[in-house]
Amino acid sequence: MKVKCKANASLALIKYWGKKDVFLNIPATSSLAVSVDKFYSISELELSDRDEIILNSKPVILQNREKVFFDYARKILSEPNVRFKIKSENNFPTAAGLASSSSGFASIAACILKYFDKYSFNSASNLARVGSASAARAIYGGFTILKEGSKESFQLRDESYFNDLRIIFAIIDSSEKELSSRAAMNICKHHGFYYDAWIASSKKIFKDALYFFLKKDFVHFGATIVKSYQNMFALMFASSIFYFKNSTIDLIKYAAYLRNKGILVFETMDAGPQVKFLCLEKNLNTILKGLKQNFTDIEFIVSKVGCDLEWI
User: Fold this and answer.
1) Number of Cβ within a 10 Å radius of residue 64
2) Do both 4 and 54 map to the same domain?
3) 187 is a domain residue
4) Which phi and psi angles does 101 have, rounded to 5°?
5) The model scores a pTM over 0.90
6) Mind listing the pLDDT tens digit for each residue in 12-21?
C-alpha cells in the first residue's frame, strides 16, 4: 500500500523567526502566511524495514531533524516498530529560501497519518511542525496562522479571500544556501538584546497585520509585511548573518521606487537571497514588465494563492 499527496509551499508574510523549543520546533513568534500555488512538493509513502527519504531522486542522509520527526510520528501513531520510506519531489529549488521544507514536511506528515487512517488537519499540522515549523501552515491553503508557542496552525481564510493577490518570486540564486534557517535562528538567539527586541516588535506587527488583513486594507497590510521582514533581517545583520546578494538590494530599492510612484507592491524575504513581491492583479503586468526590463538576468515566477493539500 502507498499513499501520495501534494502540498503547496507556505510563504510567511508576517515572519516566524526563533524557537521556544528547538527539539519540537515551537515558534517564538506568531506568523501569518499565504499558500503558494506555483511551488509544491509531492510525497509518496510506503512502509519499509528502515526509515529513508529519497528527495528529488536522491537519497537523503538522515540527520537529527528527520530522525526526531520520524520518532515523533511513531509516538503519536503508537506504532514504535514501524519504519517509513518516503519519495518526495519539489518542483522548485530546495533549501534556497523558497520554503521547500514547508511543503515537503507537510506532504510527508499528511501521508504518514493518512496511511494509518489518523489524518486530520490538526494532527497533520502538529506532526509537520516537528519537521519544519513552516510546514505546520502548509497543510492548509489560503491564509494561515501559527501562533507563538503553538503546536498547530489554523486557516484564517481560504484562497478565495484575497483572490486577486499575486506573488512574484525573483529567483536570484537557486543553489542551496550555505547556512540553514535553523542554524541562523540559533545564532540569532545568542544576540540577546537584538533578539529580545525582535520578539517584542513581532507581537505588535502581528497584531497590526491581522487587523489590516481582516479589513482587506492592502496598503497598511503590505506595510506590515515589509516591516516584518526588515526587522527580521536587522536581527540577522546584528548577528553577522548575510543572505543578501547585490541583486537583492537592487530589487528592494526597486520596490520602494514603485511605491513612491504610487504603484502598490510590497516585498518580503526569507532566509535566502530571493525577493518576493506582493501586488494585486490589476498592477501585475506593470510591475512584472518593469522587473523584467530592469533585471534581465533574474527569473520571475508569478503565483496565485494556493489551496489545501491534495491526495493523488
Assistant:
1) 8
2) yes
3) yes
4) -70, -25
5) yes
6) 999 999 999 9
